[in-house]
Amino acid sequence: MTFSPRSRTRRASAWSSLWLLTRRDLKVRYATSLLGYLWSILDPLLMSLIYWFVFTQVFQRTVGEQPYIVFLLTALLPWVWVNGAISDSTRAFLRDVKLVRSVALPHWIWVGRIVCSKGIEFLLSLPVLVAFAILSGAPVGWGVLLMPVAVLLLAALTLGVGLIVAPLVVFFRDLERATKLILRVLFYASPIIYGAQDLPEFARPLAWFNPLSGIFALFRAGFFPDQIDWPLIAASTAMTLLFLGIGILVFRRTIGGVLKEL
User: Fold this and answer.
1) Which pTM does this prediction carry?
2) Shortest CA distance to 179 belongs to which of 162, 156, 154, 155?
3) How far apart are CA 166 and CA 93, in angstroms?
4) Of 82, 98, 168, 223, which has the fewest CB atoms closer than 10 Å, so is most exposed?
5) What's the rounded Cα separation, in Å, for the pair 166 and 110?
């Protein structure tokens, strides 16, 4: 397969624009913030400390593995990426209507820049995980090499869902609030404060329909090799590709109507 110089130039221009818009989002978000990017790690850090305190100091913990704070962070940090990106994707077009109308860019970039900016915040939060892993003496195994795979899968899943909700919210404004409610439920339905293996027998099949189950297992693989479940990871990979494919299809079929509605 060969590509013309024009198509290569157009593709390079699209990726360059994606990077510029991602940088713009990050600069605008922290331009007037005293703590800067530290705000991106305070939320998952505070949540982790609360759950750690409740499940280790107040109640006797029966889920997860030791050190529990590391167990929490390995899923909470990527969850913040998913939650933030999908929530912001509901206003991907509504937030910058004038730019969407006037700038000749591939329209998926307006969703892609949100996924990228939240992904960069996730990467910047990883030193917190490393610090707690060192302080708690968490052993590091070969599974840490699977983290880049987990990052790619999570980015693909988030982009796929974002491509679904971003255009549909333009037509159905109530979907914005519904998405946030679904995300709230999904937090407890995903193996974040617990592992997929901690689910009772009757609930374990549900983990196979949640692509986050296998992806979070990959994130935890470097510190908790017992969390690796290859059939579950394969199912999550298939679900991720399915969501991405559906997202691309929905986006292509609705973007024309979105531009008219805006």
Assistant:
1) 0.88
2) 162
3) 7
4) 98
5) 9
